[in-house]
TrEMBL record:
Membrane topology qualifier: Peripheral membrane protein
Gene3D superfamilies assigned to the protein according to its UniProt record, in alphabetical order: 3.30.300.20, P-loop containing nucleotide triphosphate hydrolases (3.40.50.300)
Coiled coil: none
Chain segments carrying region G1: 18-25
Superkingdom as given in the UniProt entry: Bacteria
Binding, GTP: 18-25, 65-69, 127-130
Domain KH type-2: 208-285
Gene name per UniProt: era
Gene Ontology process terms (BP): ribosomal small subunit assembly
Protein name per its UniProtKB record: GTPase Era
Residue segments, region G5: 156-158
Length: 303
């Protein structure tokens, strides 16, 4: 008698990094052309941390984003970048996507300088190989490997999907054993949920003092489609202390009301549909230990 042995689940959080125009979106889209996957509806809002969830059973690949801002001035931008690079270090690996035709540019050098401080396996993905002769790839690869150590190197054309499947399979094989971060049948809502949490989080950053944002975490508890075409969205803001809860709520609920009003307005603008947003503030110390999917969903800044 034979029994089917199910391979244990694997899950990798993968930071997709690269200079503007390197082909990150094209790669993510090409990668998502396979099986169950999601792609953020508005990838140009680089505040998204999750770009796509790609199923390669037994592996789930969660591709995350990093904004292309390296010298942020505003507090909010700083927080976003910190979150993004925090994201990189929370990841299991990073993909450095390089435009092979553009070669070593200033933007790429700035990213390399950042990546030197990131203790993660970095995979080099030389993209757009359809645009240049093979022999030009070697000097570029040599120049890059002189700067950084790469766990793996792939040469692809995201546009032509050349080499993308091989890359995904290698990522799936390298994914550490662990439970999937998202249930396979519940992927379609992830971008909307992420967006809602991000937008609320952004308004908290805008409307409270330094202390709170560093300790606040937003989760979208539910996203319910209504027959009239609108959606009901319930978000919970988790803070560590009662004092922070009081700040977020404000006098007589004034601040939370304003956070909700602005977040709803932004969501309506981004999604172009009616949204009913409900916010709930909970005190929950130690949430960061207790919820394992937080490293994927949270937007924690480093301060
Ligand atoms: N020929 C060729 N063009 C590509 C390839 N990959 C991406 N491109 C093109 O390069 C341009 C930039 O690609 P994107 O995917 O938008 O680049 P990105 O890294 O996401 O850019 P940002 O969102 O600005 O950071 C687009 O015009 C793509 O069509 C490739 O493999 N071959």
């Amino acid at each position: 008698m034979s029994e089917e042995v199910q391979a244990p689940q694997r899950c990798a959080i993968i930071a997709v990094i690269g200079a503007p125009n390197a082909g990150k979106s094209t790669l993510v889209n090409a990668a998502s052309g396979t099986k169950v996957s999601i792609v953020s509806p508005k990838p140009q809002t680089t505040r998204f941390r999750i770009r796509a969830v790609i199923m390669r059973p037994p592996a789930q690949l969660v591709l995350t984003d990093t904004p292309g801002i390296f010298n942020p001035r505003r507090r909010l931008d700083r927080a976003m970048v910190a979150a993004a690079w925090g994201g990189a270090t929370d990841s299991d690996m990073a993909l450095l996507v390089v435009d092979a035709r553009a070669g070593m540019t200033e933007a790429l050098q700035a990213i390399i300088a950042k990546l030197k401080k990131v203790k993660l396996p970095i995979w080099l993905v030389l993209n757009k190989i359809d645009l240049i002769p093979r022999d030009r790839l070697l000097p570029l690869t040599a120049a890059l490997t002189a700067e950084l150590t790469f766990a793996e190197t792939f040469m692809i054309s995201a546009e032509k999907r050349d080499g993308v499947d091989k890359l995904l399979q290698a990522l799936a094989d390298a994914a550490p054993e662990g439970p999937w971060l998202f249930p396979e049948d519940d992927l379609s809502d992830v971008p909307n949920r992420m967006l809602a949490a991000e937008v609320v989080r952004e308004q908290i950053l805008r409307m409270t003092h330094e202390e709170v944002p560093h300790h606040a975490h937003v989760e979208t508890e539910s996203w319910t489609e209504r027959p009239d075409g609108s959606a009901r969205v319930d978000c919970t803001i988790y803070v560590n202390r009662a004092s922070q809860k009081a700040i977020v709520i404000g006098d007589g609920g004034s601040r939370i009301k304003e956070i909700g009003r602005r977040a709803r307005q932004e969501l309506v603008g981004l999604l172009e549909r009616p949204i009913h947003l409900f916010l709930n503030v909970k005190e929950k110390s130690g949430w960061d230990e207790s919820r394992m999917h937080i490293r994927a969903l949270g937007l924690e800044d480093e301060g």
